[in-house]
Amino acid sequence: MPKKRKPPAKAPESPGFALPNPEDLGTESLPPYIPVEANLSMQSAIERVKEQHEGQLLAIDGVVGVGIQQDTIGNPVIAVYVRDAAVKNKLPATVGGYPIVVTVTGDIDAYRAP
Questions:
Q1: CB atoms within 10 A of CB 75
Q2: Which of 27, 49, 101, 114 has a CB 3.0–4.6 Å from the CB of 96, allowing a cystine?
Q3: DSSP secondary structure letter of residue 21
Q4: Which residue segment(s) compose the domain that 71 sits in?
């Protein structure tokens, strides 16, 4: 007669993983929810504003670049890169309803591939 096999040993019970209670998490540090469709339309609008004002911004002595970024909570802003901090005083606070965020980069030299 074949030997009877022992049933496999059971793993010890573990407390498992419990999801936190959403009410305990708070929402003050979360960025606002922006649906993808709304975010895309905002990006298109800010791209148009950037294109409309880029030449004017680059014409200001000391401005070395213009781009689009997001602020710390995810809102689109116009990024203006400047040679030194004194240039900031020559810039408007907003362009086309979007705030300007200034970054001091110094001169930017384009790299040309050999």
A1: 15
A2: 49
A3: P
A4: 33-104
